[in-house]
Structure formats: C-alpha cells, structure tokens
Design goal:
Length: about 550
C-alpha cells in the first residue's frame, strides 16, 4: 500500500508541476524527433507504455475495464494510479500476463489541460483530457517511485508535445506553442481558410503574427497548384481515407526554388479533446459537432535539399557505373608481358583510369589518365579520354599520334577541366619502349632493383587545356626482367601527417621488393600507402600500373 500511495503522490505532483506552459517551453528537446524516438531516449530501460485511446478498452467488457473502474466512477476520477506489481501471481490481472506477458502493470490517468475561448464569452474555460496509460514490464516489481517519476514525466512531455499538440491549438491560448514542435510547416485548414499555423509555416510564407479568432484565406497564401490540390482533395476524400499526399514545385517568400512534400490529413478535433459543444469556429460557423469532418491538418515539408541530394545520388550512381566500365574487366595475357593494375577512388566517383590493350601485332599499349580532381566532373572527363583512346588505338599506336588525338577530342567538349596522361607502347619482342606524357609523372623503370629511368617530370601540358599542345615523347631499350611502373600523382604525392610525400618511400619499396610476383608487389604498394598516410584523409584517386618483361 505504501508503494501505491507513493506513486499516487508522485503522479499528482507531476500534474501540478508540469503545466501546459512549462511543457510548451520544452518542445526544443524533442524537435524533429518522432514520438517513439523521444520515448526511447527518455523512458527508463525495461519499462514500456500503452496508451488507451479507444473507449472500447475501458468500457464494460473491455480489456482494461477492471483498472478503469478503479480510476474513474460515473465519469469522475477517483484515483490516479492502480495496478499490480506481479500479474502472474495476481488473479485480478492474470489475464494480462497470459495475453501479453506483463508482470508489473501500473495504470495512471494522463491529464492534459487546454484553455479555450467559447464564442459566447471572453473568459477562459478549462478542459481536462483524461486518457488511461499503462506502464508495464515483463519483470515483477519493475516500477518504483524513482523510475515511475521519470517514466510519467517523460510520457507527459512527449505525448503533450508530439500527439495532443494539434488538437489543443485550434482555439487554444496557452497551448499555441505546441504547434511549433511539429517538424515542417503545419496549417490547420478548412476548404476556405487557415485557422492556425506554426512558426515554420509563418516563416516559409511570411504570414502575419497569429491573432486570436482571425483566419487567413487559403487563396492569399498558396500557389494555384497547391490550392487546387487542397480543394480537390478535401472534396474527394472518402470517409475511410485518413490522408492524401503530393509533391509540388513552388517558391519561397524570397522567390528561391522550393520543392514541397504536402500531406493533407483529417484533423479529428474530438478524438483527443473534450471541448464544449457550444464552441463554434468563426467565419464558417462550424460547430464542434462537425469539426471532425471539416478540419484538416496540412503538413508542408521542404524537401528541396532531399530531392537535390537524391538527384545527385542518382548522378553519382550513373557516374560510378560509367567509371567501372572505363576500367578493363581483365588484363591481357601474353607470353612477353606480365601486367598488374589497380585504381582506388578518393570518393564515390574518381577521375583516374587505366587501360591495357594487347594489339594484333603483339604490341602492348598501356594508357593511364588522371582527370583533374575527383567526382562526377572528373569522371566525365575520364570517360571522354577513355573513349578517345579506344577509338584511336585501332588506327594508330605511336605516342605522338595517340596523345594528340585524345587531346583534340577533349578540346572539342565544353566541359571545364583537363586530363594528365601517360601512354606507353611496348614492341612485340619486349625490347623497346616508346612513351608519351601529357602533364603526367614519368614512368619508373627498375632493372634488378636498380633504377635505370626515373627523373623529374619533363615539361609537358595536360590534355584539354586551351593552349598549344605540348607533350613529351621518349623511347628506350628494355630487356627481360625489367619492371616498368606508372603511377597517378595522387599516389606519388600522398602525404602523411607531417606533410611528407609518399614518393621516396614508394621508390624504396620498389627497389627492395622488385622481385615479388607482380600482383603481390601491387598489393604491397597500396598497403604501404595506407600505412604511410595513417589517419590522413585521401585527397586524390590512387592508381598504380605495373608491367614486367617476362624472361625469354
């Protein structure tokens, strides 16, 4: 008995302390949160709640008739809490344990106050909303004075601000701020007028400060397409329909682009609140008796960024698919050359690409390109470069002809940016290498672990720039066992937390592990790059291409 007396005192104290005014000041705690999410954060662990909105549950023969009779008698409240600490052992509540598995069950009456102004008088009238609520747990004795205080106060805060805020605002005075806890713009409307709106709606449409008993014509606020949809939806909504929705293109008050998600939902005033039957809504002379049929809650949510993000996401997915198609599905097999390559994008979409083609005459053509930056723009430039390479390699193979053709293709498009590239062509016997560079680092060549060709990038310009073409061309003899490597500047210039580039470490790794199988050496390059960089974020795409001349 002491426990139930304590719970009763706590409940009465909370009702006294948490008034409509204090609750409405706390809406910022749960702004943009769903009702279940709020309760998950606020409720003590192990305690669940059930709110009884249906009268059938508490009337004679209802599921919770026993508890309802202990809380209310002849419409008057006679107790604030009731229940059991172990329904499994309590014959009165055993049926709830058998049905739901509840052992601790505490019923409480949830009281919410609304201040309203009847049409016949300017005096405030107070109306109390009573809904039984059940706190329950699968464990016995799970509720004590401390966690009940937390649970009841949390529920009252969340329920007031998240559920009853709409029904308590049409003619409310002290509770007007409940509307402002709704994420997005909320209007209480009929077919002709706006009766109420929250701060988001006021800002979105630059509406005047709300004045009691003043309504705003729909036509003064909404675009013709939204207005026509509201009229049509209200006229055509069947009794069983709860809501309709649509997407609209509109403009903000400052004339900037706006995409809105609109939801028109039946606003059943009488579902949650007990208002005086004589109350009427001005301008249309709507009595409370018909309010459920004529009032609607119109939610408008700004989804401009969401739609633009979705459009961007689709563009990225397209560019990702495009980029995957730019890279060869497999590398050619040859009795003269061994090839290994990998390309890792800094973002979802990169600007690096490589291609390796074994030509009909036995020559091996190797192409590595790096479009400026990374992302969709660089991927599009890379796609043009890749397409141009594939188109020209069947016709000409000399470095000069290939780079000039790709450069000319890039210059013809209006897309801004540029592409650096290295193109290598090996003769069929693996004895001679010719290459061309367009603003790209030189290939690094090792023979038995010693560098035989590695120097600073010679003077050359990227492809696609609006300047006279300036590419670098060279050739040299090679022999079986030589290792030829080409890297993107993103890999060479990778920096660690001290600002040191990866180039020196990369060269040391190549000279030490040059005799590893090519695929293992490639893996070691990227592993060492990750280790060297540490926690520093990757800023550019990383591409490595390794070619080894097989022994005779």
């Amino acid at each position: 008995m002491e426990m139930w007396k304590s719970l009763e005192e706590i409940k009465i104290a909370i009702d006294k302390d948490l008034t409509g005014e204090s609750l409405s000041d706390m809406y910022h705690l749960i702004e943009s949160q769903s009702f279940p999410a709020v309760l998950d954060k606020l409720m003590p662990p192990g305690i669940d709640i059930t709110i009884l909105f249906s009268a059938e549950d508490v009337l004679e023969g209802g599921m919770h008739e026993i508890a309802a009779n202990k809380l209310f008698k002849e419409g008057k409240q006679i107790a604030h809490v009731t229940g059991t600490m172990d329904a499994q052992a309590d014959s009165e509540y055993r049926y709830l344990y058998d049905k739901f598995g509840w052992r601790t069950i505490v019923y409480a009456s949830l009281d919410l106050v609304q201040y309203s102004i009847p049409s016949e008088t300017s005096e405030l009238s107070v109306y109390i909303i009573n809904n039984p609520v059940i706190f329950h747990s699968s464990e016995p004795d799970a509720i004590d004075a401390n966690n009940f205080k937390t649970a009841f106060a949390s529920l009252k805060l969340a329920l007031t601000a998240m559920v009853l805020r709409m029904a308590l605002t049409i003619t409310g005075v002290a509770s007007l701020r409940y509307l402002d806890s709704i994420p997005g713009a909320l209007f209480i409307v009929t077919k002709k007028f706006i009766y109420d709106y929250n701060k988001t709606a006021k800002t979105l449409y630059r509406l005047p400060k709300r004045q009691e008993n003043r309504v705003v014509s729909l036509e003064k606020v909404f675009d013709a397409n939204i207005l026509e949809w509201i009229h049509r939806s209200i006229s055509n909504m069947a009794p069983e329909d709860e809501e309709v929705s649509a997407i609209f293109k509109s403009k903000r008050a400052d004339n900037t682009k706006l995409i809105l998600e609109a939801v028109l939902r039946r606003f059943k005033v009488m579902t949650f609140s007990r208002m005086h039957e004589r109350m009427r809504f001005y301008h249309e002379d709507i009595s409370m008796e018909h309010a459920d049929e004529l009032f609607f809650a119109l939610f408008l949510r700004d989804i401009t960024l969401q739609r633009e993000s979705e459009k961007l996401r689709q563009e990225i997915m397209l560019a990702e698919r495009m980029q995957r198609h730019l890279l060869p599905e497999s590398l050619p097999l040859s009795d003269k050359f061994d090839v290994a390559a990998d390309c890792r994008s800094a973002g979802n979409v990169g600007g690096d690409l490589y291609d390796v083609v074994l030509l009909d005459d036995g020559k091996l053509a190797v192409f590595l390109a790096d479009a400026a930056g990374h992302g969709i723009d660089s991927a599009l430039l890379a796609a043009v470069a890749s397409g141009a390479f594939r188109a020209v390699i069947d016709q000409v193979t000399s470095p000069r002809a290939v780079l000039h053709a790709i450069d000319n293709a890039l210059r013809k498009i209006s897309h801004p940016g540029f592409v650096t590239a290295a193109y290598l062509i090996f003769d069929a016997n693996g004895n001679r290498l010719e290459y061309g560079l367009a603003g790209h680092p030189s290939p690094v060549i090792l023979r038995e672990g010693q560098f035989i060709h590695s120097h600073d990038p010679p003077e050359s310009l990227p492809m696609g720039v609006k300047l006279p073409q300036l590419h670098y061309f060279a050739s040299l003899d090679i022999r079986p066992g030589d290792l030829i490597t080409v890297f993107s500047d993103g890999l060479i210039d990778t920096r660690n937390s001290e600002g040191v580039t990866f180039e020196k470490t990369l060269h040391e790794l190549l000279s030490i592990h040059f005799d590893l199988p090519l695929h293992e050496l490639l893996k070691a390059v990227f592993t060492e790059s990750d280790r060297f960089r540490g926690n520093v974020e990757v800023e550019d795409d990383l591409t490595a291409l390794l070619i080894q001349i097989k022994p005779d």
